[in-house]
């Protein structure tokens, strides 16, 4: 890892006060291409409100670098989403208590600088601490989204399968890569 700059990422849960920021990020071409999300105020409140209010089991987390918000991570236990779990289990074995993440870097000027990799590494470390029963994190990525799966690889995840899943954006083919990282073994 020579030449790699360490970045201190901090976190907090998304709140309703963050919805204008999420709307702005979701409108950015580099995000919109892969997230394909409605960006009206009503749509953002509809889709992010339940997690912000704790009414949904997933966690929407804002990532900060030097006290500036840089990205969003959605983290969930796959057991809490049985249809999604079944879809992934059709391609790769899914251990009980496995987690998944989705992520974005909001500002296009902050892409290509290793921030995404730092965000992924940081959220993984937090996942092991916050979810002690989680044996691994599984992440499906559209095969065409090379920057995303390269960030996963740089963060230490390994490609464990290729299969067809319903893409977020209908312009994409269903081909996905599935990445996995296992809970680090501690020397207790």
* Structural class assignment: alpha+beta
User: What is the top-level CATH class?
Assistant: Alpha Beta
SSE topology string:
EHHHEEHEHEHEE
Termini separation comes to 26 Å
Low-pLDDT ranges: none
What share of residues are in beta strands? 25-35%
Please compute the radius of gyration using only Cα atoms: 16 Å
Question: Please, how many domains?
Answer: 1
Strand order of the largest sheet: 1-2-3-4
The number of E-state strands comes to 7
- Outline the biggest β-sheet: 4 strands, antiparallel
Which CATH-level-2 architecture?
Answer: 3-Layer(aba) Sandwich
Mean pLDDT: 92
Describe the structure.
The chain is an alpha+beta fold. It has a single domain, classed as Aminopeptidase (3-Layer(aba) Sandwich), CATH 3.40.630.30. The chain is built from 6 helices and 7 strands. The chain has helices at 19-27, 29-35, 41-52, 82-89, 115-130, 146-154, and strands spanning 9-13, 59-65, 68-77, 99-105, 136-142, 158-164, 175-182. The strands form 2 sheets. A 4-stranded antiparallel β-sheet has the order 1-2-3-4, with helices on both faces. Strands 5-7-6 form a 3-stranded antiparallel β-sheet, covered by helices on one side. A hairpin with a 2-residue loop joins strand 2 (59-65) and strand 3 (68-77). Helix 1 packs across helix 3. The longest helix has 16 residues, at 115-130. The two termini are 26 Å apart.
